[in-house]
Design goal:
The chain contains 12 helices and 5 strands. It has helices at 18-42, 52-65, 78-86, 93-97, 104-120, 138-142, 149-152, 163-176, 219-224, 246-249, 265-276, 285-294, and strands at 128-132, 155-160, 181-185, 204-210, 230-239.
Length: 300
Amino acid sequence: MSVYTLHSPLNSLDGLSTPHIMVGVALVLVFGLVASIVVLSLQKSKLDWNKGFLSYIQFAYSCFIKPHERDSEGEAGQQHALESFYRAQASVYDATRKKLLCGREDMLALLAAQLKYRQSQHQVSKPVWVDIGGGTGYNIEAMKAFLPVDEFFSHVYLVDLSPSLLEVARQRFERLGWKNVSVICRDAREFRLPGANGAANGGADIVTMSYSLSMIPDYYSGVDSLNNLMKSDAILGVVDFYVQNIVDVSCRNYTGGVFNRHVNWLGRAFWRAWFDFDRVNLDAARRDYLEYKFGTIISA
């Protein structure tokens, strides 16, 4: 009989137990992390945190380390919570979300195709677009790959509750020179189209929500308020995170598209807990209520 014995490097260190070694390694790693942060802080004036790997360090700090702050009165309302989360990373938001926030370009391409068709059929001339929770204005600029935004749309309204992200949006549209885009800091549930584009004239032709529904605490009133913005035949485009099990979708009769998109129990528990730290809600009820309220043409 042959016996093969494997020796772990940890066991070869006489006088030290595995727990002691693990604690020592952890202390070294923590010391290295703290030292790196101190060095980077001392060189802050020389570093461009908005480019390359440093932008991801800032993103990781804002998402996983930096605590949510309370306002001067000790409250943590929705706007203050958003600012606490986004203020430190507003300048690197777009650079660090390209891989994370998937599906935005696909949504815009589908919406652009619908709008082009309706225009060809004389169902719409120059549409009005409302982007709910549009943040830095990435979606609106990205739409130029499919439509000439400054010429095709009568007006575009970007509505968000984070002043830091909206400042990035203002600078974006000043750079682009687009005069038909308005950047508005307001709760999406309270926003109403002004003047000639208001409900008296039918409302918006297209409304988009890109990774914003999952961050609206009172999503029932948020979804209900969309009726006050949209024409009866308007197009609603939504892309967002969610986790859902097979039981939730087994009795649906109000959605189309891909059916088998459920997540196992372990995945649901992990992702819900992980995203909950940043006030992002992945419960399936948000998508269910949205599709129940408006119906679905394409779902994936």
